[in-house]
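Posting for a labmate who doesn't have an account.
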Amino acid sequence: MAASPFIEIDVDGFTVKITNPQKPFFAERGETKLDLVNYYLSVGDGILRALRERPTYVKRHIDGAESEPIYQKRLPQHAPDWIETVTVRFPSGRSAAAACPTHLADIIWLVNTGTIDFHPWPSRRADTERPDEMRLDLDPQPGTDFHDAQKAIPVMREMLDELGMVGWPKTSGNRGIHVYVRIEPRWSFTEVRRAALAFGRELERRMPDLITTKWWKEERGEKVFLDFNQNARDRTIASAYSVRARRDATLSAPCTWSEIVEVDTRDFTIATMPGRFAELGDLHAGIDDAVCSLDPLLEWASRDLEQGVGDAPYPPQYPKMEGEPMRVQPSRARKVVVEEPADLTEG
């Protein structure tokens, strides 16, 4: 049986073998695995900044973007010994050694395994239980789209300014928008999630016809959902510069605040981003220098609680959390019907 064709490339002093470099990965566009490798090399500073020292899950598509995905939380056993790992535990109580990128070569090696999407934790290996990133995820619901999410951006920026926070927007690469806030790593996942929920509820108050924080889909309507649960422990979203497994080869693109309200998510692909990156560099380059406090948002959360607005449901795989309301969708909630006893006397 003939050996698979391959090439070897040097990535910052590490030799990475790329097998089947001409395999189609975005068939309709004609782009190959090697094109995907070259894309990640072209945005190396940006993707490494987004993933550096973070437990990272990957979404592998061995036969290209339209093939069935393999969601992988553990670093493959055959990985080279220069790729570092960190042990993380899941809500189930199990644990795994997740990839913890420290070199661009780590990322390129994972791309060779079929990885298209990279999904890092919002915390780093120094203390995986203390996030250093709050993630505000605008997720358009059926009947809404990316352009509806854009409408929320000016108000989100105003709110962040009020809170003394710096936000870093990016397209999700799909239908939504993400805004990251770098925070001091001194709060738990529970607290960061509570802060994101408080932010979402205030945004909902200011834009009630557009924004919802309702966890149950049946209650959301045709609105944009601010997904506070993306800040729950073990939840991840696509990183900045992560390509998405879509036939149009779009990616999660950092933007300026003025850009994000004008762009189309289809503007950013593995073909267009290298030139943009070469011209502008990483638009999130200053994120690690803009560390914010969660205290103002946690004060908003306390205000909500005092007004009788408590926690919201967690995703179904999580254990019941303290203060969490009943975790059952409203239409299926058991209702106690009090009926008057039947009159058994004869008339």
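Reply:
Got it, the structure tokens are right above this. The first helix runs from residue 33 to 42.
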